[in-house]
Amino acid sequence: MCDCNEQENVIDITNNHKAFQNGLIALDFGNWEKLMECSECGQLWKVSEFEKYQTLYAVKVPDLNDWEDVGDALIKEKIVQDRGGITEQECMFSGCEHKQVKDSAYCIDHLYETGTGH
Ligand SMILES: [Zn+2]
Ligand SMILES: [Zn+2]
Questions:
Q1: Cα 31 to averaged position of ligand 1 atoms, centre (Å)
Q2: Same domain (yes/no): 90, 74
Q3: Comparing C-alpha atoms, which of 43, 7, 46, 52 is closest to residue 23?
């Protein structure tokens, strides 16, 4: 049996991304990420591909039609949480007034976009 049910909504699969994808079927491909479905329980997962992020994530996606956006929002939340929150400093990206994520020079949107990861 699969263990989708026991997994968190966002999980770090950096060290087991190959094993994690066993039993999953790719349904759609996005920008450095793909939509996969568990062949046993039908759970949808958005899975990060190599290269863009040094940390790879798998995210449970509730809605097939909105998988890229929903997944991004969940991954951003997880990154902020993993790094210990938001600081009072402004993002270094020119013109951006959002606050930096801890241990980063960027806000979460720019951190995520530039893929500077960890
Ligand atoms: Zn499953
Ligand atoms: Zn920013």
A1: 24
A2: no
A3: 43
